[in-house]
């Protein structure tokens, strides 16, 4: 039930064409490591922490994030040079995702915003950075649009994200996200 409203944020065929089944489990473990979410083709696996006071919010964010991963993989988004060039062009010179020389752990949130990142986790990988934007776009669009009005890097990534989602379906516009 917690995800029912979230599924309606996408055109029906987008869900039907890309998700066969969603499993919500108490825990998810592979090779002795715990995960909050994962997917395998058209199957999504999400954890629902019965002990957490933010369990519904976390479940919703994880759904959008993992669906983003599924779409990235299926539609080979990271192989689209135009989109990736646009996404990466606002990063500092020499920046590479996951590079240990890029230490942002002591950076303030505002410094990260200036660089186009929404959190310190966003610098770990392109997929994580992208997923963070998708989470915000589907769960906190007003906040994300507000940030995009203050920070040019965030604005460029939001525009790229909206453009990319509009390729899935033209319903995905800034106005659409703000109306959620």
Task: Write a structural description.
By secondary structure, the protein is mainly alpha-helical. 51% of the residues lie in helices and 11% in strands. The longest helix is centred in the middle third of the chain and has 20 residues. It is globular and about 40 Å long.
Key words describing this protein structure:
single chain, 180 residues, mainly alpha, three-stranded mixed sheet, two-stranded antiparallel sheet, 51% helix, 11% strand
List the helices and strands and how they pair.
Layout: H1 4-7, H2 12-18, E1 21-25, E2 28-30, E3 33-35, E4 37-40, E5 43-47, H3 55-74, H4 81-88, H5 109-114, H6 126-139, H7 141-150, H8 152-168, H9 174-178
Parallel strand pairs: 1-5
Antiparallel strand pairs: 2-3, 4-5
Helix pairs in contact: 3-6, 6-7, 7-8
């Amino acid at each position: 039930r917690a995800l029912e409203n979230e599924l309606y944020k996408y055109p029906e065929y987008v869900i039907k064409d890309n998700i066969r089944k969603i499993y919500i489990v108490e825990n998810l473990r592979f090779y002795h490591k715990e995960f909050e979410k994962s997917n395998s083709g058209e199957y999504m696996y999400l954890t629902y922490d019965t002990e957490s006071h933010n369990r519904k919010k976390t479940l919703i964010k994880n759904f959008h994030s993992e669906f983003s991963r599924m779409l990235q993989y299926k539609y080979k988004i990271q192989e689209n040079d135009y989109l990736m060039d646009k996404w990466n062009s606002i990063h500092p010179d020499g920046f590479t995702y996951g590079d240990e020389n890029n230490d942002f752990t002591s950076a303030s949130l505002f410094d990260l915003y200036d660089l186009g990142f929404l959190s310190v986790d966003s610098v770990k990988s392109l997929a994580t950075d992208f997923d963070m934007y998708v989470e915000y776009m589907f769960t906190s669009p007003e906040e994300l649009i507000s940030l995009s009005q203050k920070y040019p890097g965030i604005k460029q990534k939001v525009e790229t994200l909206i453009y990319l989602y509009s390729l899935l379906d033209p319903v995905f516009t800034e106005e659409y996200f703000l109306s959620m």
